[in-house]
Amino acid sequence: MMRFLRLPKFSRRILIFLAIMGPGIITACADNDAGGITTYSVAGASFGYEMLWGLFLITIALAVVQEMCARMGAVTGKGLSDLIRENFGVRWTMFAMGILLIANLFTIIADFAGIAASGEIFGISRFFFIPLMAGVIWFTVLRGSYKIVERVFLGFCLAQFAYIFSGFMAKPDWSLALRHTFVPTFRMDAHFILIFIGVIGTTITPWMQFYIQSSIRDKGITVKQYKYERLEVLFGAFLTDFVSFFIIVASAATLFKYGIHIETARDAAVALGPLAGGFAETLFALGLFGASTLTASIVTLSSSYAICEAFGWESGINKNFREAPIFYGLFTFLILIGAGVVLWPKLSLIVVMLLSQEVNGILLPFILIFMLILINNRRIMGKEVNSTFYNVIAGLVVAALIVLTLILVVTSLFPA
Amino acid sequence: MFVSDLIGDPVVDRVQEPVGRVKDIIITLGETFPKVTGLLIKREDNKKEAILLLAEVDLIGPQFVTTRSVRSRITFTELRDGEVLLERDIFDKQIVDVDGARVIRVNDLKLAKVEQEVRLIAADTGLAGLLRRLGMLRLVNWILKFFGRQTPETLIGWDHVEPLKTDFNKGYIAIPHKRTAELHPADIAHIISQVNPDQRKELFTSLSEKTAAESLHELEPMIGAMLLQTIDTKKALGILEKMPVDEVADLLGDLPPERTEEFLRLIRIKKSAEIRKLLKHHDETAGGLMTTEFITLPQGLTVEETINRLRETAPSAETIYYLYVVDEAERLVGVLSLRNLIISLPEKRLEEVMIRDCITVTVEMNQRQVAEVISKYNLLAVPVIDGEGRVQGIVTVDDVIDLMLPPVSRRKRQMLG
Questions:
Q1: ipTM of this model?
Q2: I need a labelling partner for A103 at 20 to 30 A (CA). Which of A112, A241, B252, B394 fits?
Q3: Domain count of chain A?
Q4: pLDDT per residue over A108-146, tens digit each?
């Protein structure tokens, strides 16, 4: 039982802050999952520091978008899929859930690809490792203690912080890196645009908006306690992209410098070379494995919850299969497909991981438009509706993604 | 007739001239089966939304709606605030199904002609409603017909549905068989933990003090503490009065100190003194778990005197299965089960029939060890003694049952509570 409310005011504040911090750190780590690490590595390896300005702007957008979700959760006490269902009706809900399902399925596939790639670095065949991990995830999330799983894999994720040190030790050209962080560079070729969409799509993901809002609701955070939550969201966005920044810098200072193209996960591990030397691959594999497993678990579970909630089907790991057949069916289906696709023998894991983030980036605007309509509705949000600043930022993300996708279609159809 | 069939229907006048299309349906709440009073339509002539009162309507059906008079003579009214619209306000909203203790959604609504009125009679919460909204019901039924089946209908009669009024969150509660008050407190607690904070407060306030007190114990401590702070102090006090002291202490322990102090000042002096005593002990020790409501008896009494005394004082103690025998200095000397007492000869003295070496725990003992002791000796309760051997309270088996269950069922219980 929690007695923290009896503590003196100051320490109580810190404890409340830490208790609320949980989901932020988890999403921050889960954000740099298989797709994330790959996309940032490829961005750094292919274009050096050129995409850092994009990351800088995306960080602001990430903070804004996640704050919107957290605010909706605190004000309405409902999840995002609840709000979509209650305000847009069945057809639009089908549409939104279809989008979410496709985006999440790609994310799950990418994460199984990440698990497979990390296994291969250790010399474990994916035909053994993938079925094993699919079983482990299925069993631990549904039948075991999810909390323990979360902590173990979060521990693995700490390996990601190695990028920060490696980024420094690779002796990057700091003046160039800083200039690219604040001065935009753009190239009108399909590869650049595709990676750029991928970077946006991996940083601001559709699933995370649903996850954050649900976790705020489940914790029963109210408008009054919301100021702590806002801090957390801002901190989480910063932390996520702090690591991402160094992944790009470390990759640019190593891979890009020597002209290495990432074709397998082993190549991407070179970016950790300046720090870990011969252990770079091990360290890379550990971080990749932890983040991928954590994200695969979270995304399968949160997609099943979101979809069941939207349609009023029974859900919850405390129900049995007979009580909540669709929930269990969906969960199992997502894991089977995610793991099954990766077992395809000729599949390039790196391509899958990159592609999934691009799909996420292309689908994100739809979810953002739903969110923008909801959060500007006074009937739902009362006086907590979006300020103009927030609307402009979120609107710009939507516009940028749509324009980029259109340019992408055009440049792929008519290469210069 | 279902609302989803009606919405989008063309409205024509008595000479088949188009008037508009149905956008929504207006009802007045208050009766068990609410009456439809009008249709919100999008007018054909000026493309504006207006209300067509039901008095103007002649026929109403799933294909079209006709009016009594010709187009030019229909009077429209404006939509006012506070009007209840079926599609806007009830479609897709949550229904807390008390029977299955789960949250479902209104997929569709069923209307029916009752005498001369059209009334809302049921909510469709099943797959059929969902498919009908998507315009796919006929197709699916046509396919299913080859297998000799049909999409199952899941209707909840509107007489079993009660609205929960809150500021932002409109929600409904369905009570198919029983009233909320007749449900087991553990079920009510489960429902409370399933709905959002606004509805939670609404639902909780609607319970009687006794039911509220019982469900409060079954709720997760944080939710319980939050509820206690949101409802008004008078009601909260009434509920606290109905709870055993150890449960009150647990609950107050989770409140901020200012609030705890406020409640303690308002509770009956005798009860609050006991609560204060309990609050001093650390949460996870025997002292934090124990209740101070138990029965002690002086060792000099005879069996007959004891039984009379129990009957007279009609003790409110949580458990009377064990009676604790103490000496002049209130030190524990023996224990007696109710069974021992009843089968003993009336004239025997307590010290002759009691068991002398009792199993006890200390105030500081960790709750897990307490649970082990209770489980090892198969006890219903164990006395908690201080350094001098005086009984401070007892820990009953239901206070530690969560610690004895294997992790999975414990998690289940917590999620339910």
A1: 0.72
A2: A241
A3: 1
A4: 999 999 999 999 999 999 999 999 999 998 988 887 666
